Amino acid sequence: QQENKTRDEKLQELCAYLSNNVAYYNWVGFYFANHETKTLHLGPYVGAPTDHTVIPFGKGICGQVAESNANFVVPDVSAQDNYIACSFTVKSEIVVPLFVNGVNIGQIDIDSHVLDPFSEVDERFLEFVNQEVAKLF
Ligand code: SME
């Protein structure tokens, strides 16, 4: 019944799959960009509920990636100035932009309770994941 699932249902399952299969992926979610209002909006996610459902471009790790179009790996969030804390249990974060036809339409955001867990393997893997996600758009 795969074809009957909505895109959000597929993304929700993907978040759960990633969170369930990588021990240090503790919060996994998607933010989507509104280029008119220059804000990011929380999409499907798994993990602790967050107050940050809308993030202005430029603000926090996510907002910076909306403008830079580049991966952002944060080994230690306590060392970041422009960071939006969602939970005190979060130690590190990785954000990888999602491109559809060359346009940065959002991002996958992963928080970890572990210090410095993300390597280039995670970056390449999440770039691949986002290339697959892009096909849903
Ligand atoms: N920490 C992010 C905010 C989103 S929460 O991690 C879900 C940031 O600094 O942009």
From TrEMBL:
Which Pfam families does this chain map to?
A: GAF_2
Q: Which GO terms describe its cellular component?
A: cytosol
User: What domain of life does the native source organism fall in?
Assistant: Bacteria
Q: Which InterPro entries match?
A: GAF, GAF-like_dom_sf, Phosphatase_reg/MetRdx
Q: Where is the GAF domain?
A: 6-129
Q: Which GO terms describe its molecular function?
A: L-methionine-(R)-S-oxide reductase activity
Q: Which family does it belong to?
A: Belongs to the free Met sulfoxide reductase family.
Q: What is this protein called?
A: GAF domain-containing protein
Source organism (scientific name)? Flavobacterium stagni
